[in-house]
Amino acid sequence: MAINFDKALGIHPYALQARVQRSEILAGNLANVDTPGYLARDYDFKSVLINLETQLNQSTGGRLPELEMHSLYRVPFQASKDGNTAELGIEQAKFNNNAMNFQSSLTFLNMRIQGLQKVIDGR
Prior knowledge:
Elements: H1 5-9, H2 12-31, E1 41-42, H3 45-58, E2 72-73, H4 88-121
Antiparallel strand pairs: 1-2
């Protein structure tokens, strides 16, 4: 009996990819925290995962889901005079939170792969 890795791993590889892309956006926000007129962006990660899960449930053989991530502009908690909406503390917190969630997803995916390895080895 063949193992379907897409079904076995589920949404987790795509979640990792989405976390990487979100890290890039958040890093850009951090890099531009002092740039006048810069508009901070982010992803609605929950809606990205819901979209991916829907695609995975509807997919029929061989068609991989597409990671559709559309960045949104963030409304600042405290407006700045120069029009920059990136706030250092907020961006750092979001980046750190995303990094921790990435690590959690990676750990979970690693455990799934180790479980599959045990099945393949017959343990």
